[in-house]
Amino acid sequence: MRALLLVCLFAVGLSGADPRALSMHPFVGQRGVAFQATVRGTNLQETKGVFVEEPGLRMAVAATAKDVVTLRVETGADFRPGRYSFRLVTASGVSNALTMQIVDSTVIAEPDGTHETVETAIPAGPGLYTGLIAKKGESDYYAFDAKAGETLTFQVLSGLPSIGAPGGNANGFDPSLSIYEEAGSWFDPKRLRRIAFNDEPLWVLGRGTDAFLKHSFEKNARYFVRLDAFSGQGGPTYAYFLRILRGSFDEEKPPGKPDWEERTYQRPLTSDRLNELAERGGKARSQKSVETYRMGGVFKLPAVLEGTIGRAGESHQAKFVAEGPQDIAIEVETPDTAPPLFNPVVRLIDQKGEEVVTNFFAGRGACTGALNKGLVAKTIFPLRNPGEYTVEVRDLTADLGEAGFRYRVMIRPQIAHLGKVIVEEDHINLAPGGAKTVRVTFDREEDFRGAVAVAVEGLPEGVTVLAAADFEPDKDPPMHPGKRERYVPRTERTVLAFAVADGAPLMETPKVARVTVRPVVDGKPGVVIASKQIPMMVVAKP
After folding, report:
1. Hey, is 493 helix, strand or coil?
2. Domain residues for 522?
3. Rounded CA gap, 417 and 257, in Å?
4. CA quadruple 9, 10, 16, 19: dihedral sign
5. Domain count, the chain
6. What is the pLDDT of residue 374?
7. 3-state helix, strand, coil in the chain (%, to 5)
8. What average pLDDT is seen over the chain?
């Protein structure tokens, strides 16, 4: 086993023979109750086991066919509910990870057959249900009774999620929910009338597309909830999990990624922000705490300004005095409602009433390349003139304002540090005598000029890792670069080459290697600021 420190890190694809798990049905089960599930994917025909790191979650292969694996899942009665990942182990190596969920309530499976009419609707009530949209255009109906004034909460989770990426609605299962009541007519005594609908609250690039719906019923009656794919898709991988709850509940969302996110509106701007950044820059945690002020009046840097755009057209201001030149950063957090619903514009105005800097960024559009403008969650600026400055916050339009338009704006000195780090590889399968590269990218924030050390720990026997470089085509410079340095970090990458000796022993189960990233400043390595666990296997050549 050998580890190597490098300067800098990204990831690379795998060979076509690599096993790939695509979906699991059902992907939800009750703790303490054994159940069978079907995993579909590619190159799964020689699956021989399941790799699970969570103690107490027992998964075994019950049957295999071409690209279809049947698993038996068991947990104890005291197993902790939650979401857990697993991987299939095949003759070609370990697969990517899939996620399943264990709950503490009874889970009811969709009965055999189709359920696309009132007559074939699945009898339901408050509870948990798993099902499958088995073919294109199919829908599932559930029949339930509700009382006048009663509120029910409905949520459907997709087993093949679309994440709002371009083409995502066609390449994933974007579920929608509709509620109907019986409203027969002379022409059709079985006619249904739709009284509520939800696809997702808002389609936003990168966000999930699961459906969530609350509804208060006006009368005692039998109702129907219809579940289908918004774009009419369907197939054996279109599994779902439906929750029907009595009362009003918040949407159950998947846990957030633990990775560092710096340029999103909903990352928390804590009072310890300066120390967090200093640590990512290889410095000691010796920075002062950031004080919080209500918007309005006078404040001192560093500071967080809090307020709410409660009414349309509101504009909030606060003032500070710059004693001398300093490089500042302005970060914006929207804890409740994020863009594109609430779009906070932050302006810094000097004592002459002139705008010094704003969080508007002009650049080329991703689709057409045309010049456009957008808002960003972070702006850096070299403040050179001493004097009084005004911070102004408003919504992008003068038409919106509500209690959810809450903002937190941090104005602080710049601290050079490492920003977001991405190790894209999910797993690595290697054959004796072979090699693969893994690319790692990282952002240099606020003029961070230190080195970046990358180490790999826990390599399998016979596997080594070396510093490498791969070819990257030259990119055309931006047509209208503007002042990109204020709004966009400098992104770099490095490459790791994993090599296997000719006589390396073959592996029956994966071994988890750990990639770590840390800054190196003034000749000293800082703490680990990013890491990723990557299961690895040495397998025979296909």
Report:
1. strand
2. 6-10+419-538
3. 20
4. positive
5. 4
6. 87
7. 5, 50, 50
8. 90
Q: Specify whether the CB–CB gap between 132 and 123 falls below 8 A.
A: no
Q: Supply 89's token pair.
A: 């182990």
In a domain, 147, yes or no: yes
CA gap 203, 201 in Å, rounded: 7
Clarify whether residues 327 and 288 are in a common domain: yes
Give 344's strand partners.
395
Cβ contact 234:137 at 8 Å: yes
Residue that is last in its domain, among 387, 415, 443 = 415
CA gap 210, 162 in Å, rounded? 8
Q: Which DSSP state fits 509?
A: S
Q: Report if pTM > 0.90.
A: no
Angle 63-67-68 from CA coordinates, rounded to 5°: 35
Q: Which residue has the tokens 């085509």?
A: 473
Q: Does residue 150 fall inside a structural domain?
A: yes
408 and 363 both lie in a single domain: yes
Q: How many CB atoms are closer than 10 A to CB 400?
A: 17
116: left (phi over 0), alpha (psi -120 to 50) or beta: alpha
Among 8, 38, 6, 1, residue whose Cα is nearest residue 443: 8
Token pair, residue 252, equals 């159950």
Q: What is the bridge-based pairing of β-strands 490-500 and 435-445?
A: antiparallel
Looking at the structure, tell me whether residues 281 and 407 fall in a common domain.
Answer: yes
Number of H helices, E strands in the chain: 3, 40
508-517 pLDDT tens trace? 999 999 999 9
6/432: higher pLDDT: 432
Q: Which of 399, 179, 159, 415 is nearest to 274 (CA)?
A: 415
| CATH code of the domain containing 402 | 2.60.120.380
Identify residue 280 by its one-letter amino acid code: R
pLDDT at 10 over 60: no
324 lies in a domain? yes
DSSP letter string over 417-429? EEEEEEE----EE
Looking at the fold, whether 407 and 443 belong to one and the same domain comes out as no
Same domain, 292 and 402: yes
- Same domain for 427 and 401? no
Cα angle, residue 236 at apex, residues 204 and 536 outer, rounded to 5°: 75
Tokens of 62: 């019950």
Span 82-106, average pLDDT: 96
In a domain, 264, yes or no: no
